[in-house]
Amino acid sequence: MKKWIFSTLLYLSVFVTVPTAAQHENKHIDAVKIEFLTKKLDLSPEEAQKFWPVYHNYQREMISIFKERRRARQLQKEANTPPDELKFETRILETKKRYRKEFQDVLPAQKADLVFPAEREFREWLINQLRERRQHP
Questions:
Q1: Where is the signal peptide (predicted)?
Q2: pTM of the entire structure?
Q3: Which residues of 1-20 are buried (b: 16+ CB within 10 A; e: fewer)?
């Protein structure tokens, strides 16, 4: 009986630990991203204080769109219908346009124009880091 309880607890602890490790990894990536973008945009402390809340709102909105698109793709795949990618690409573009204006409200225009290219550069850097880690564990 004790072995069964111990085995069950051990088995369940694996499932509790996995999301925690993934959450830790996401928080680490977010911290690195903040550092990367802060340096790339050359944000002063005052600019950073205004910029990051707006950027986090932008990020939440984009994540929501991507999750919704993923769900729609799955439903369309199950229903054997073509995906409506244009709808999501339009929403992404509209969101970026709106937030570009919001970034310009809190940053000089020159820095606001660098947000999306810096974000793309970070993604490319991160992908390269992950590839290297996979090749050289």
A1: 1-22
A2: 0.77
A3: eeeeeeeeeeeeeeeeeeee
For 56, the domain range is 30-135
Distance (Å, whole) CA 59 – CA 51: 12
- Give me the pLDDT at residue 5, please: 47
Is residue 54 assigned to a domain?
yes
Kindly state whether residue 17 falls inside one of the protein's structural domains: no
**Residue 7 within any structural domain of the chain:** no
By the 10 Å C-beta count (0-12 exposed, 13-18 middle, 19+ buried), 124 is classed as exposed
pLDDT digits (tens, 9 = 90+) for 13-30: 444 445 565 566 778 889
Does residue 106 register a pLDDT over 90?
yes
Q: What domain count does the chain have?
A: 1
Domain membership of residue 9 (yes or no) is no
